[in-house]
Design goal:
By secondary structure, the chain is mainly alpha-helical. It folds into 2 domains: 123 residues, no CATH class; 174 residues, Orthogonal Bundle (hpI Integrase, Chain A). 49% of the residues lie in helices and 6% in strands. Strands 3-4-5 form a 3-stranded antiparallel beta sheet. β1 and β2 form a beta hairpin. The longest helix is centred in the middle third of the chain and has 22 residues.
Length: 335
Amino acid sequence: MKLEKSLVLQKYKSEIQNVEISFTGFEHKTVYEVIEEFLGYKSSEQTKRAYRSDIKVFFDKIKVYYLKDLGFVPYHELVRLVLTHINSYKNVEKHRPDQVINPKTINRKAYALSAFFKFLINVYNYPKNPLNNFISLKEPKRSNTTSLTKSEIFELIEFLKKNIANSQIDFRNYLIIMCLFSLALRRNEVANLRWKDINLDRQSINVFQKGGTYKELPIPDNLLKLLFSFRSEYAKLSGYIFHPLVNNRTGVIDKPITADLIFKIVKKIIPKVIPDKKITPHSFRKTFVEFALTNNQDFISIINATGHSNIEMVKYYDTRDTLKNNAINQMNSIF
């Protein structure tokens, strides 16, 4: 680790110098205000949440709350603070301290801060980006998200189906899991599903996806029937398919549930059926991709479902056994 830090600091050697910094005219502007201004240019709510958290945590840690305060931090010191902050999130292999096991997290935090400093440069004439020479860590070529087996999916669905008549919450949770898996949706996409986006003539639904665009997806027959059964019994008071059951603060329930609630629902349900696996909402999306590939669906049809921009992301989610899923195995039927 000492060698790594030494090499990193050498790369910054040309950068660590004092730079005169002034925010004339913006002295009373808070860093939080500028962060929100910066995030206004981002379309994805998920990206906004992640960037907001990453950037605020850094400035809180270095106790800089106003733009004028940032101007008082010597540039070489800011470079050191940024590096120290990012390195503090590194998790390494126990017996291989040079092997970082969470490179995506490290890179994301660095990208968030780098993007914010670029914004300061373009809008507020901040002189330099302290992350100009940041070298992103190598990320794994395959997703480390845990997926489910076919039998686990069936077991989970059967468990949830038994309880849908018990309460609105049980029915809702069942549908949330079904949407995560059957439609290969991200949790934020599930949270924002609306009744008006369902097209009965086409048996489809328009989904507002990451990146601020819409994708039209077919709805499986059974899922469509379940959705309208749920609507007729419980969901007549909101335009959102999944809305808060109560709102003790404002009383308003005509709004979507949060993506965080979906995460909590999955984390609460899964241990009751599959206790030995770390399953998240994204596990269902990854499982969908692997199931589709196993069933010989082509890359284009999978991309049409997931909304990915290229086949590389589909490959990224494919962590099936390369020995079992190998074209050589077909030779057994020939010889």
